Amino acid sequence: MPWLWGATVLVLGIGLAWGLAFSPPDWQQGETVRIMYVHVPMAWLAMGGYTGLVIASLMSLIWRHPLADLAAREMSPVGAAATALCLATGSLWGKPMWGTWWVWDARLTSVLILFFLWLGHAALVRAFDDPERGARAGAILALVGAVNVPIIKFSVDWWNTLHQPASVTRLAAPGLHVDILYPLLTCALGFTLLFTALILARTRSAVMERRIRGLELASARRHEAARA
Prior knowledge:
It comes from Plastoroseomonas arctica. This protein has 228 residues and is mostly helical. It has one domain (2-23, 30-162, 175-227). It contains 7 helices and no strands. The protein has helices at residues 2-22, 36-63, 66-98, 106-124, 131-145, 148-158, 178-227. It is elongated, with a radius of gyration of 21 Å.
């Protein structure tokens, strides 16, 4: 964890400084393009993180691995925060570019649904007194919601939307100049490290909490047996 946090601070610090202070403005978007250095990584993490949630849910349902349950439980608040930042920064970008804070097109609506899926999972896994029941219910919700991820990805190709198509991950050459592309990729790596560090830290805390509860329960049972 110390090495991971150190790498996170270093890479994210370089990426944000590079993108927000030293990269040139876009010829069309002007200074507004700097919102992209947060918005695009958050969008990638929202979808990539949900894919990780689906994998953890499969491990939970198939192999009943308790660590997968804990990882999924701690992943959903972080994923919801990333998706909320994606929506908020997208609105900040949309106002000067589109003239409106929000439009109900396929890309924006499907990302909003993803946000509600993250929130639903976070609430559902904590809604039961039995952690295993909550984990199972959350895993089923995550798997059902997995159909939304390809809809988000390909919505700009399947439907006529305001949102522009992919400009970084397309098969042809990226549609961004290297002066913008490189700091964007650096920010994406930094935010990915931050996302990973937060999930690992939360999962480790959850493991320690469960161990403490187990020790307290065992101690209480020993006291009851001694009294009997």
